Amino acid sequence: MSSAPLLEVRGLNAWYGESHVLHGVDLDIREGETVTLLGRNGAGKTTTLRAIMGILRRREGVIRLCGKDLLSLPLHKVAQTGIGYVPEERGIFASLSVSENLILPPTVSDSGMSVEEIYKLFPNLHERRSSQGTKLSGGEQQMLAIARVLRTGAKIILLDEPTEGLAPVIVQRIGDVLMALKERGMTILLVEQNFRFARKVADRFYLMEDGRMVNSFPGHELDARMDELHEVLGV
Amino acid sequence: MNTIFGIPTPALYGQVLIGLINGSFYAMLSLGLAVIFGLLRVINFAHGAQYMLGAFAAYLLLNWLGINYWVALVLAPLVVGAVAVVIERTMLSRLYGVDHLYGLLLTFGLALIFEGAFRHWFGAAGQPYAAPSQLTGGVNLGFMFLPIYRGWVVVASLVVCIGTWLLIEKTRLGAYLRAATENATLVQAFGVNVPLLLTLTYGLGAALAAFAGVLAAPIYQVSPLMGSNLIIIVFAVVVVGGMGSILGAIVTGYVLGVLEGLTKVFYPEASSIVIFVIMAIVLLVRPAGLFGREE
């Protein structure tokens, strides 16, 4: 724990209208780490990502990326600090072609992948680059949503349930992509319900309940803690 | 003399031409309305007033500063667009978080203020504005006589409509605009300055209306109420084409203009209501409009 975290969240509170949904969330992610948020539906995992991005505006506490305060930034300045966001609903635009969807987010640094590299990693997207974005299958749309943030040169990507509702073979494929990103040194904050998937890629887990962080442990302890997790997650 | 369905062909062609001219204005105005509605979700009731301001800008540039038609064709949209940018920044942008009805009420109020002010200064009567000398006169096409200025209006509006369509469908800026029309929050979370995009879009829509106003000045004269007479029909065109559909607004504008012209030939009594009858039928059969997407 010697190096300063890349993303640092301290005492984060957030509200949807009048309803108080995050209660003092703390979270640290170091460079190159893959961290997974676990928790039941409604525990506040997606809300945490939305609060970090600034999509959820009513927030208090501290959110810092590389020491830079994100809380005071307008929404469109947050991505420019180096965060890529892959929303739960994937956010593929129907009025844009696959290639237009891919190049939509403005680049934030020179370290991103080129369009050629991305098409090499996702040959399906290359084949269907002139199709309407939402004509892709669910798995392809998820690939596109991930590919889209790889181009921008973000230092950290927030991935919200990338395997939800996808066939096992596609889940495997997405796992391979995340492993490849880890090898390139990408920092990843993942929200995931699929244990088997998360176990493969995560270096560390956080456990959320009712808008609070209730536990945190390294990836290799996952198996030993299964009973405890089953109790909290009710799976 | 040649006739079609008992109608002399020169009369028929003449009305088709008038329909095309009217259609040109419907298309340019409904295009701006559709772009603004698509992204800002504001029904811009000031659109007719912005068209009128474009015509008055040309008139005043000529009579006060001696600036000719061709320069006015560029300058008037810039001036009116700039006014619209100020309106969006200072007033309209405060209403995005509340019910869309407030945007409609604000723009309706602004339209009344602009039209009232110009009626106070210039009276309700139309001011003449001469077509530039290069575009006066006409040519005999063999089957009909074409006044050059009217041909120019059709060509200029086609160029502007196709240019705007290309801007929206084929450029990166247009991709931002289309994506933000679907999900503005996500586009902004990707790092696009969406508030600026909204401002520019409102400015562009108003500039299109002003360009149409300059084109209209030599044909319809320049009067404070010229926009409010037209805007109701243009709203009907947008509804028929499909709220927010760019191509729908353009195609529907020209088609309804020509249909209206043809109605004048075959059944003149219905010519002033034909567009509204079509609107009613489209709303019954296909509520999202001919080119609109169901939401």
UniProtKB/TrEMBL annotation, chain A:
It comes from Microvirga splendida. InterPro entries: AAA+_ATPase, ABC_transporter-like_ATP-bd, ABC_transporter-like_CS, BCAA_Transport_ATP-bd_LivF, P-loop_NTPase. Gene3D superfamilies: P-loop containing nucleotide triphosphate hydrolases. SUPFAM superfamilies: P-loop containing nucleoside triphosphate hydrolases. One of its GO terms (molecular function) is ATP binding. This is ABC transporter ATP-binding protein. Belongs to the ABC transporter superfamily. Keywords: Amino-acid transport, ATP-binding, Nucleotide-binding, Transport. Signal peptide: none annotated.
Automatic annotation (TrEMBL), chain B:
Belongs to the binding-protein-dependent transport system permease family. LivHM subfamily. CDD domains: TM_PBP1_LivH_like (cd06582). This is Branched-chain amino acid ABC transporter permease. Keywords: Amino-acid transport, Cell membrane, Membrane, Transmembrane, Transmembrane helix, Transport. It comes from the Bacteria. The lineage of its organism: Bacteria, Pseudomonadati, Pseudomonadota, Alphaproteobacteria, Hyphomicrobiales. InterPro entries: ABC_transp_permease, BCAA_transport_permease. It comes from Microvirga splendida. The chain crosses the membrane at residues 12-35, 42-61, 67-87, 99-122, 142-168, 200-220, 232-259, 265-285. It is a multi-pass membrane protein. Pfam families: BPD_transp_2. It is found in: Cell membrane.
